[in-house]
Amino acid sequence: MNEGTMMYDLARRIFPIYRSITGEGVRETFRILKEWLGDACTFNTYEVPTGTQVFDWTVPREWKIRDAYIDDEEGNRVLSFRDNCLHVVGYSCPADKVVPLEELLEMIYTQPDQPDVIPYVTSYYKDRIGFCMTENQKKALRPGNYHIVIDSELFDGSLTYADAVLTGETEEEILFSTYSCHPSMGNDNCSGLVLSAQLIRAVAAMPKRRYTYRFVFGPETIGIIAYLSQQDRYLSLREKCRAGFTFSCVGDDREYSIVHSQSGKALSDRALENALKSRDPAKVKHYSFLTRGSDERQYNSPGIDLAVAGFCRSKYWVFPEYHTSADDLSVISPEGFQGSFDVMMETVELLEHNAVYRTTTPCEPQLGKRGLYPTVSQKGMYDSVAAMMDLLAYANGERDLITISEEIGVPARELIPIARKLEEAKLIERMCAQ
Amino acid sequence: MNEGTMMYDLARRIFPIYRSITGEGVRETFRILKEWLGDACTFNTYEVPTGTQVFDWTVPREWKIRDAYIDDEEGNRVLSFRDNCLHVVGYSCPADKVVPLEELLEMIYTQPDQPDVIPYVTSYYKDRIGFCMTENQKKALRPGNYHIVIDSELFDGSLTYADAVLTGETEEEILFSTYSCHPSMGNDNCSGLVLSAQLIRAVAAMPKRRYTYRFVFGPETIGIIAYLSQQDRYLSLREKCRAGFTFSCVGDDREYSIVHSQSGKALSDRALENALKSRDPAKVKHYSFLTRGSDERQYNSPGIDLAVAGFCRSKYWVFPEYHTSADDLSVISPEGFQGSFDVMMETVELLEHNAVYRTTTPCEPQLGKRGLYPTVSQKGMYDSVAAMMDLLAYANGERDLITISEEIGVPARELIPIARKLEEAKLIERMCAQ
Amino acid sequence: MNEGTMMYDLARRIFPIYRSITGEGVRETFRILKEWLGDACTFNTYEVPTGTQVFDWTVPREWKIRDAYIDDEEGNRVLSFRDNCLHVVGYSCPADKVVPLEELLEMIYTQPDQPDVIPYVTSYYKDRIGFCMTENQKKALRPGNYHIVIDSELFDGSLTYADAVLTGETEEEILFSTYSCHPSMGNDNCSGLVLSAQLIRAVAAMPKRRYTYRFVFGPETIGIIAYLSQQDRYLSLREKCRAGFTFSCVGDDREYSIVHSQSGKALSDRALENALKSRDPAKVKHYSFLTRGSDERQYNSPGIDLAVAGFCRSKYWVFPEYHTSADDLSVISPEGFQGSFDVMMETVELLEHNAVYRTTTPCEPQLGKRGLYPTVSQKGMYDSVAAMMDLLAYANGERDLITISEEIGVPARELIPIARKLEEAKLIERMCAQ
Fold first, then answer.
1. Which of A221, A234, A317 sits opposite B362 (nearest CB)?
2. Can you give the pTM of this predicted structure?
3. Chain B, 375-394: which have a CB under 8 Å from a chain A CB?
């Protein structure tokens, strides 16, 4: 079974769980991930009590929902949480009352430009009673009284986040981060949880690792802020983290999207861009930091200063099913997951092998005597060794492999085996990790 | 009465005065400006005696002209200074003689490509007798003798320049400079004198000023060289001046032109460009320093090194009426003046509010609890706060507001109130003036 | 007789000589060049014994060839070295045996995409018996036995290279390098030898030289590596060399090609680019360092670090006759040589006159009193002095003349006389050589 299929199966398993920024849904999701990962890593979960200050934020009350529905005067069930969990605004206050249509309408959210979908709406930080339905459902509501019930609870509890760290030869870190707060939607964000989990397995299975790999899971915004704030993790990350990526909407099979870090030129950007160079350029989209929307917002913020890039297939906000009931298991696929996994593994490969090289001899070395150069010289023969000659010419002790790749126009993936060959022949030497 | 109308009225008043690089016309103009400005500022005038060395130049003799004409053999007045003062080449030597047509023709200047206008011609530094007329007038001259009279005088006198300084909270200066040497032409340069005067009034009326504002008036080239040279003003300007602008042809209502400083990236360029971003891009022209022509030539010269940018509506050289009798009061208008005034006041506003900001908290702050962020989250809602989020994300203690404006693509004018709001909420803090 | 004609005559003289990376052909060529140069310079030749280590390389055995042919069973001469010396693979081992067609075919090299030319093929570092013929000749071979004879010899001898150094006022050097290893081909490389020789004459005849000029001649790759390695020449070159050029295929009259140094922004690039600006842009080709192929490979390599640019007319690899028997005396011409010579002399001129200038007076100087500026001011007159005014405005003690040329868009060649005039008028002064 290939990785894509395994990932899709895992997505199917966690899809039905109702997640929010706090609560049992998140905990249940983490339990499944931990079990699925098995021995691959130590999967740590953390609870942050309601009221805890995390940087400028305060951890909110925990939220639990058991049921919700709207009945009309005849007792017909207009809407039920059991049909689709998106029908209730996330973090809705409890309610059990009869209201006339006019009052009900003020509590209803729809997506008028997509009249057949239920939008995903939340109100974490302001008490509110709210329902979501399709625009067509709303239009069909007739005057009269409605019995609305939200069997929810807001109470002092805790917010849950998790991480897994795979130590490498050095303390320098590569960071992967995804969020755990979205209820039943497929691409956003079952897919990110699943890609992170599969990457943990793959990285754990690598025979050796130069870098330490850190995988972070938490509710978007507040969870990552809590993660960075607590134990002053941001200080050690700022010191050790060399590159990082946030995952969002990585399960569909449409395009590949990179959301650049603030400078757009960090190692994160350069490594991921380079890996994407081997993909069909028509399917690769490059988004500026100005279009950021997930936790790259926190990682790149002044004071944190981690140049983390975002990775998506169809970018959040852009694909039509985004944040609606249409973002279900049909949007994602084994093929989509496999594509995301392959890109991220190639990125890991590039980072592992990236190094600043220096040639060991002035002038070009005599490659022929080492079997690395054609022994007959006729026009056109240089082409076959051009990448090797270029690598030798640009390995001046200042450029790393990715920079050389960019300057000579050859994907870094193709340069890695050449660099290894030249290193074994002692024609180049590694200066230091970058 | 709006500023444009007041400015046009002032232009009408100074238009008829005959100005040159020295003489009573300049002094009379300065007297009117001083009177018009009233209590707004101390308007200082300075006299530099003939023969004074100013850098590489020597202040020439003062020039006075009372009358000039050409009569033909029949006593018909072919041309009279009283009809149009441009008929005499500026700084013409006195003359009173009868000459045949051939000799007269050598003294005549026309604009052959514009046969109906009198060109504006000067000969400040070489003794010369010269008349200007339309090409058609010249073609109509018939053989015969002509009585030519120029009742002018060149004598040891002085060159006059002026300035006004409005002190601010700091000694850092913003410079505005315009020239006072052109006879009756509307756009070039009544308009510059008028814009400077109106700006003095407006800046003087500002409730507080971070910068000190310096307004310089003098004959083009020699006057500004004298200004910079005397009292070693260029040394203190080089130290204190943060941005500067020369005004030329700022009274018409065609386009907005910026003549960039040598680097094109100085604060002057960036502030004025930013202010122009709110104007119709089709009406904004960007000129390289290679097309400079007014006193930005002196300010930017090596040894002075003030990165001053030029501001025009239709740029000198470019509009058809330039340096001809067609550049009269019909070329300029209240609307044209108002546009120039608004752009320069917006530039002043940007400079006053420009600062390097730093966010005070790692990660994004919780804007919702401060009423600065939507409390409901649904797709599309981020747009309304994107500029605020971007400002927070880019305020890293290194970028000034104008740089942030350029990087996030939002005019600085729109960022100023946002920055004020964030500063009041103590979410960003000012590092230092730039 | 112009230089082009003299150069073509010299090319005709050295064309027939059979050159390889070692041997009498190279020595004979150098003897002719030395004689042709006469008193213009001291032309030094050097012998490097077989087996000498030069950086990563070992000087190979010397090769001598006396004759070679193939006879068929009927005694018909299928191919003879005396008809065309390209018929034998360079550095072929001796042979005298009868082989069947199948075996012969394995020794034969052709250029299938150009069926009427004999390709130029070498095998310097691997023992091999090889013949070259046209594809059509090969196709005409009938089954049977063939008597193949190569009367060659490989023996411990030496590799020959040469140089000539014309000392200047300073020890700073300009380098010209060309290769001496190609047998009878016109553009590649008789032409490079000839251009270098003519330049030696011209530079030697210059009344004064700021720079010292070094001309290097040696077999491509191994010869230049030997040159740089021996006497640690690369260390002093790295210290003293300011710009350098390799010559290859400089005798045809098609286009002008520059092969950029690695950065593409070195003085070599900038000077040659500037000289080429005066040529028809449609005939100037700019090649990136990634397309390098001659000894700029060695000069630019890490550890040598000389930012040498390549100069060609039609670039090697690109023109159809390249490395075939079609590259004969008909490809090159007096006109082609003259064009190359003119470009390189203009480049020398630019380098000699390039300097960092600083204006001596703040503000613009009064050019009128020095007769350098129109005394009448009317619109349009500024154009005639724009280049002079721009030079004054940009001469800030940091830009060299070539940089000013690039920034103001005027070829440096036109700025040289202006700079001289301003220097004589003491309006600019030279800071230091660059």
1. A234
2. 0.93
3. 375-379, 382, 386, 389-390, 392-394
